[in-house]
Specification:
This protein has 215 residues and is α+β, with helices and mostly antiparallel strands. It has helices spanning 59-67, 72-83, 89-100, 163-177, 205-214, and strands spanning 118-130, 137-147, 153-158, 183-186, 193-195, 202-203. Strands 3-2-1-4 form a four-stranded mixed sheet, covered by helices on one side. A two-stranded antiparallel sheet has the order 5-6. Helix 1 (59-67) crosses helix 3 (89-100), helix 2 (72-83) crosses helix 3 and helix 4 (163-177) runs parallel beside helix 5 (205-214). The longest helix is centred in the last third of the chain and has 15 residues, at 163-177.
Length: 215
């Protein structure tokens, strides 16, 4: 928080994330969230009634979260749990409906990782391509490796999969990225996991060797 030059009560300064907690002197927060100090004359009167609800102070941040695909419940929970927001869920929901329409987006989990720490790998359905040998169209499998921090991804197509192909795809993906990550988060594919156990995970030996080699 930064006090104004004329000794006025501090405004909330937001750099990243959600709005911060209420100032120590229990003054009401400004009705506009900016990256810096509010200009003179923009602080609301202490007895003023906000017609748009308590969540209006976080309007710009809520708009940002909506662009990321968050829904009203997820945004409100983050505000309350991590940023000292005291308003009710209905206040956030009304503003979300005003900004985004009556239909709320599906809840999405956001996983935050450090640069180079983690990547996620999985298969998906690829397009139909003509095989070089048979000349007939065949369904392909789409291998996707996505970096957790930047969300940059490498996508490779194969006609078939095996433990050898799965390991080879990892090598090619890491070569294209120029490096590997410390953690590789994989689904329980048979090419990677022989038996899934939270305490004793059984990795395919070939896959284990490839991960150790590229680490």
């Amino acid at each position: 928080m930064t006090a104004g030059a004329d000794g006025s009560k501090p405004a909330i300064e937001v750099i990243t994330g959600f709005c911060g907690p209420t100032p120590a002197d229990n003054s009401k927060p400004a009705n506009e969230v900016i990256t810096g100090v509010l200009p003179e004359g923009t602080l609301p009167e202490q007895g003023a009634k906000r017609t748009t609800g308590a969540s209006e102070v976080c309007r710009e941040l809520i708009e940002l979260e909506l662009l990321r695909g968050r829904n009203a419940m997820g945004i409100w929970q983050d505000l309350v749990d991590g940023h000292g927001f005291t308003g009710g869920y209905q206040s956030v929901q009304r503003l979300v409906r005003k900004l985004h329409g009556a239909a709320s987006a599906e809840a999405r989990v956001i996983i935050e990782t450090r640069p180079g720490e983690e990547c996620q790998v999985d298969y998906g359905a690829g397009p139909m391509l003509r095989g070089a040998d048979s000349g007939k169209y065949r369904r392909t499998r789409l291998f996707v490796l996505t970096l957790g921090y930047s969300r940059k991804s490498v996508r490779l197509l194969v006609f078939r999969s095996s433990a050898w192909v799965w390991a080879e795809l990892h090598e090619k993906a890491f070569q294209r990225l120029g490096s590997s990550t410390r953690v590789v988060a994989s689904d329980n594919l048979r090419e990677a996991v022989l038996h899934a156990d939270i305490y004793d995970l059984g990795l395919n030996p070939l896959y284990r060797e490839v991960l150790a080699h590229t680490a």
